[in-house]
Amino acid sequence: MPSRAPFDMWDRERKQGVKLYVRRVFIMEDTEKLMPHYLRFIRGVIDSNDLPLNVSREILQESKDIDAIRNGCVKKVLGLLEDLAENQPEKYRTFWQEFGQVLKEGVGEDAANKERIAKLLRFASTTQEGDEPSVTLADYVARMKEGREKIYYITADTLAAAKNSPHLEVFKKKGVEVLLLTDRVDEWVVGSLFEFDGKPLQSVAKGELDLGKLEDEADKEAQKQAEEHAKPVVEKVQKALGDKVKEVRATARLTDSPACLVVGEHDMSAHLERLLKAAGQSVPAAAKPILEINPEHVLVQKLAEESDENRAYDLAQVLYDQALLAEGGKLDDPATFVKRINKLMLELSA
Predict the structure, then answer these.
(1) What is the reported pTM?
(2) What is the CATH number for 31?
(3) Residue range 96-150, pLDDT digits in tens
(4) Cβ–Cβ under 8 Å, residues 32 and 5
(5) CA separation for the pair 204, 23 (Å, rounded)
(6) Domain that residue 278 falls in
């Protein structure tokens, strides 16, 4: 296992580093049958006495001996990594910095070893010191307090964006740890890894807020009253935004921010949509987001009290645009957003 990642590690057409020999005669180097793609950083030689010297690619594709060799190699490498993680954490830390993103691909590619790979993953979290990913899923589960039922995470383009996301506000208030996923491959990881140690993984930016047993009766009653009290402003914002959003609703998810955008439980996340578009992939028509507003925020209260329809419209549009920017989205019309902000600032200073 090299100590440094090769410059062409992300080139899927590159030849792999494991060479096949039969009775010390070189047969081939470029074969994914010997090692899965997520272990493409491994270097080595496999010499078999069980294959014929005139072996062809067609024979390799259907050979049970090759399957046995591959399975044995994968188990050997994962065993090596498990030993490294347990007994030489500093060396594993170096390995993770170089090859962690590649190993994560295995969660989706290798269903048979998904659980073993999941134990080797490292993430940043809201409770750790520093920015380096060092939290395991086992660490997270071990720190879960009584009443915690889910492993919460958020995906974002950068660590700063994840740490400062408005979606985390209520979790910080409740002292609930959230994993911060910022690697491009993380969307595929959580798309394949649905649970760990019996605990389901849950995005904090999807679906309605559900803190399970962490919510007491007082919290539920306060949320119910907030929703009832916020009906007029919710209707006002919904009318201003029209078909930009699927729904507008009051929420207890926010403590400091006026609004945030969430998607449905089973919809594609906005972060994954941006990644696919950046990679030139065709993206199906995305479901419209849901705008959640904080009825206790001064800006929302100002909007609720605003009698001027034009100004109320501008405030609602700014609320939506700010929420879109806060979750890493891109404005369709930045110039109009700037004009609205300038207009509102001038009116307030007049």
Answers:
(1) 0.85
(2) 3.30.230.80
(3) 999 999 999 999 999 999 999 999 999 999 988 778 899 999 999 999 887 788 9
(4) no
(5) 55
(6) 228-349
